[in-house]
Amino acid sequence: MDEAGDMLNAAPSLQDIVDEIQAEKLTEVMKRKEWERSEKWRKMAKVVRRGGEGEGMEFEFDMRNPKLIERTWKGIPDRWRGAAWWSFMATSAREHEGSPSEERIVAEFHRLQRRSSPDDVQIDLDVPRTISRHIMFRRRYRGGQRLLFRVLHAISIYYPETGYVQGMASLAATLLCYFDEEKCFVMLVRMWHLRGLARLYRPGFEELMAAMGDFSKHWLNKEVASKLDELCIDTTAYAQLRIWDVFLLLGNDTSFMYESRKSETNTPQTVEYDVLHATSAALAQALREVLLGAEFENAMKALTSPIPVKDEDFLMKVVKAEYKQHHGKKRA
């Protein structure tokens, strides 16, 4: 009886058969390409710690390797993303004197679970609203939701001046897709210290405002910036994994800092956010024609609505071009 409905299905046409064959071929090509990319990353990876029975290995990547940087711009294969992110942040931690060790941060994570946080109620409200369609985060007080609460609870106490801010939840949830709760907390702490996120979330949002000002002045297309000024739209109105790949690799790259910028303004320097600025500039450039001919309402709608990206590879090429062009200006 379950198959009775099948007799009403039309027989597949020749075009349907051709489309199916082409789809299968395309899938095979994509699988082969992903395997080749993964193999390249495997060859770049260096085993630094082998786990016990049933445990995985820890890898290290040379962050100064030009091939690594180039391949990161192209996107880290998902199977290597967690290992690469961890390596990037661990390397940065070793290079920054005074950075707490992994063991110390993990011990602090467990200690903080025994304390209450003034932000627990708000965290409890936000957790079920965070990527709730993902299979990890569907069940209330179970699985990923429980882990997310514990991580956000700990980070809100670890940084008492900042506490919990709503934007932290989606970042922590993304990290939990690649790490257990302990490593997720370590990653957050290191990102706070080594990628400038602590300053972004600082009360008063001085660093955030400085970052927005830097983006408007030095990154945004002049015509688009002029149009937004004309419409009285501030950059705070519009502030994916491949972006984070590059941000975690290059986010602490301060080699391009230059004194002329310091002399122009007393605001904090925002070089850590250049990858994010480059992404915003690329998206603004994609919306250029829409924005230049738009009224206030349509411009705001375009800037604040989700922007569908049909071709991630092309987006990353534009982001990379924006990033290199900007740093080329800095050297000049």
From TrEMBL:
The record's InterPro entries line, in alphabetical order, gives: Rab-GAP-TBC_dom, Rab-GAP_TBC_sf, Rab_GAP_TBC_domain
Q: Which residues form the Rab-GAP TBC domain?
A: 75-332
Pfam families reported for this sequence:
RabGAP-TBC (PF00566)
Q: Which PROSITE patterns does the UniProt record give? A: TBC_RABGAP
Q: Which GO terms describe its molecular function?
A: GTPase activator activity; small GTPase binding
Bilayer-crossing regions: none
Name recorded for this polypeptide: Rab-GAP TBC domain-containing protein
Q: What is the lineage of its organism?
A: Eukaryota, Fungi, Dikarya, Ascomycota, Pezizomycotina
